[in-house]
Automatic annotation (TrEMBL):
Gene this chain is encoded by: nnrD
Cofactor: K(+); Mg(2+)
Function according to Swiss-Prot or TrEMBL: Bifunctional enzyme that catalyzes the epimerization of the S- and R-forms of NAD(P)HX and the dehydration of the S-form of NAD(P)HX at the expense of ADP, which is converted to AMP. This allows the repair of both epimers of NAD(P)HX, a damaged form of NAD(P)H that is a result of enzymatic or heat-dependent hydration. Catalyzes the dehydration of the S-form of NAD(P)HX at the expense of ADP, which is converted to AMP. Together with NAD(P)HX epimerase, which catalyzes the epimerization of the S- and R-forms, the enzyme allows the repair of both epimers of NAD(P)HX, a damaged form of NAD(P)H that is a result of enzymatic or heat-dependent hydration.
UniProt subunit comment: Homotetramer.
Binding site for (6S)-NADPHX: 58-62, 130-136, 159, 262, 324, 375, 439
Cofactor binding note from Swiss-Prot or TrEMBL: Binds 1 potassium ion per subunit.
Similarity comment: family membership: Belongs to the NnrE/AIBP family. In the C-terminal section; belongs to the NnrD/CARKD family.
UniProt xrefs under Pfam families: Carb_kinase, YjeF_N
NCBIfam families: yjeF_cterm, yjeF_nterm
Protein name stated in the entry: Bifunctional NAD(P)H-hydrate repair enzyme
GO biological process: metabolite repair; nicotinamide nucleotide metabolic process
Species this protein is from: Maribacter cobaltidurans
Residues annotated to bind AMP: K410, G411, A412, H413, T414, G438
Origin: domain of life: Bacteria
Length: 515
């Protein structure tokens, strides 16, 4: 699913209005109807008090149109107009008149108003600011937002939590609605998925408001959301007459005394991802450990307790390198020498990334389209500190383009960057913040490259499967008990899941003014 910028959404609006020959007010009515249907389906007329806080722009207009529909179906509503500006939008005014025609009188809130009282079991509809927010709200609006956040009421945000910008991090967290549920029109917003802004969104869902399909299809976006449908497009089925040679040979290089487990996890993951053969390259102290813990994996050794040279006779298809490897001088030299002669595609993680960060002249030796999988600290060492998430994205994008590598930025929503585009993963959970889960990812991606997936596809599918395995595991493990080994064990189910469970319940019918 594409992730549009605010400007692209405004353009989609405009294209829809022109091509479907509807008015902007009719489009607003569609949007409000979709939210009404969503609420009505769940509330079934329950007499819960619904407080609708509406701004004076189109987000507020949506709120007013929703208020009217709720009122017409007998819901118990209170409407507030948050007068943060004198510049009211046309469709806001149209919908305000429609309310007045029905003798529904909103409470007008300004800097001098008392803060409304709201019960813990009430519902708040947040339609104060939408994607048009262009500066931090005034103090009194921030105070109102803080007041709403402090109530125990459920907060449903229209399109985006009010106070959240679409392209920057809010300066003051107190001026942003802490939303329980966001109903986002047509497309999700990038800020739902970044660590500094995603915290305002507990859950989100997209509502189809029938924006012009041609515009949506033709418009290129910088970001794409990756769910099952997206990865299925490049999934490579196994063929009947294939053999283990068909599915490549992964070489996993890493490990040092006390950190052989990392290589064991990665090797096993590469096998489970479908790699035909897997060899681990470890110091001698790891020989018995790897051989006994994963009998399917072959083992090559060098050095006693750490890798002192990287030199082998075999011809792997792809090499995953760096996990548990350490950054001792001998290992640094070994890596340097190896990078200067190596031509094989690489998946670079952990200590190999740390070594590259300190020896940036080595970056030039990475084969093009290598895959780098840094966690936040490793990324900082590689590209330097960033002031906020947006600067981080910019730095990663530049780095990936300059070095011609695939960058996998690990986190709650891992983002894979390549050739100027970002692919945002939707699987995974906080249980994955556990030792070795990154090693597992390195193994999975290596195993996919071995089977012939191009680097970008291997990274995107690998990240998806890794998160999906963890999601399937927590059903009987819970977040706390989830381990990297559980992730590996659920990989089979994650692959099967690609073809079994339906992606999503069918969307609610769009009721428009035309029918
Ligand atoms: N295609 C879509 O997605 C549709 C969007 N609609 C709604 O339209 C919204 C966007 O509406 P608008 O462009 O009117 O913008 P908003 O309603 O988000 O904001 C209203 C106006 O307030 C002003 N403003 C911004 N920040 C301010 C601040 N801190 N203090 C005071 N004034 C400030 C700006 O001039 C802005 O245009 C969307 O979020 C959505 O809810 C729907 O009505 C219909 C279809
Ligand atoms: N809160 C979270 N939600 C979803 N995924 C997470 C979360 N925390 C960590 N992960 C995932 O777990 C993995 C952790 O990798 P990493 O930090 O390298 O672990 P390790 O070094 O222990 O192997 C990454 O793939 C990351 O995306
Ligand atoms: K809002």
């Amino acid at each position: 699913m594409k992730v549009f910028t605010a400007q692209q959404i405004y353009n989609a609006d405009k294209a829809t209005i022109e091509r479907q020959q509807i008015s902007s007010d009719e489009l607003m009515e569609r949007a409000a109807t979709q939210i009404f249907n969503w609420m009505h389906l769940r509330m079934q007329g329950a007499p819960v008090k619904i407080h609708l806080f509406c701004g004076i722009g189109n987000n507020g207009g949506d709120g007013l149109a929703l208020a009217r529909q709720l009122w017409e179906h007998g819901y118990n509503i209170a409407v507030y107009v948050v007068k943060y500006s004198e510049k009211r939008s046309k469709d806001f005014l149209t919908n305000l008149d429609r309310l007045k025609d029905r003798k529904i009188w909103p409470v007008y809130l300004d800097a001098d108003s008392e803060l409304p009282s709201i019960g813990p079991d009430d519902i708040i509809v947040d339609a104060i600011f939408g994607i048009g927010l262009n500066r931090t709200p005034d103090d009194w609006v921030s105070q109102l937002i803080q007041h709403l956040n402090k109530t125990k009421a459920f907060i449903l945000s229209v399109d985006i939590p009010s106070g959240l910008f679409t392209d920057s991090v809010p300066k003051d967290s107190a001026s942003v609605i802490q939303s329980n549920y966001v109903l986002s029109f047509q497309v999700p917003k990038l800020v739902f998925f970044l660590p500094q802004t995603g915290i305002y969104v507990e859950q989100w869902e997209v509502l189809d408001i029938g924006l012009d399909t041609a515009y949506l299809m033709e418009t290129e976006t910088e970001y794409e959301l990756i769910a099952k449908n997206e990865v299925l497009q490049f999934y490579r089925p196994r063929t009947k007459y294939s053999h283990k040679g068909t599915y490549g040979h992964s070489l996993i290089i890493g490990g040092s005394y006390g950190k052989i487990g990392a290589v064991t996890l990665a090797s096993k993951s590469a096998l489970k991802a479908g790699s035909g053969l897997v060899t681990a390259y470890v110091p001698e102290c790891g020989y018995q450990i790897v051989q006994t813990s994963v009998p399917e994996v072959m083992v090559l050794t060098n050095g006693e307790s750490l890798i002192e040279a990287i030199d082998f006779e075999i011809e792997p298809t792809v090499i995953g390198i760096g996990i548990g490897m350490g950054t001792e001088d001998k290992t640094v030299k070994a890596l340097e020498k190896f990078l200067k002669v190596n031509k094989m595609p690489l998946v670079v993680d952990a200590d190999a990334l740390n070594i590259l960060s300190k020896n940036q002249n080595l970056l030039q030796f990475l084969p093009k389209e290598s895959i780098l999988t840094p966690h936040p600290k490793e990324l900082e060492r590689l590209v330097g500190k960033w002031k906020d998430d947006f600067e981080k994205l910019k730095k990663v994008k530049e780095f990936s383009e300059k070095q011609n590598v695939v960058m996998v930025i690990k986190g709650a929503h891992t983002i894979t960057f390549f050739k100027g585009r970002g692919y945002i993963n939707t699987t995974g959970n906080p249980g994955m913040a556990t030792a070795g889960s990154g090693d597992t990812l390195t193994g999975i991606i290596t195993g996919l490259v071995a089977q012939g997936y191009p680097s970008l596809h291997a990274a995107i599918l690998g990240v998806y499967i890794h998160g999906k395995s963890a999601d399937l595991s927590i059903a009987n493990k819970g977040y706390q008990a989830l381990t990297a080994t559980d992730i590996i064990e659920s990989m089979g189910s994650a692959f099967i899941d690609l073809f079994t469970s339906p992606e999503k319940e069918a969307p609610v019918e769009v009721e428009t003014n035309e029918n």
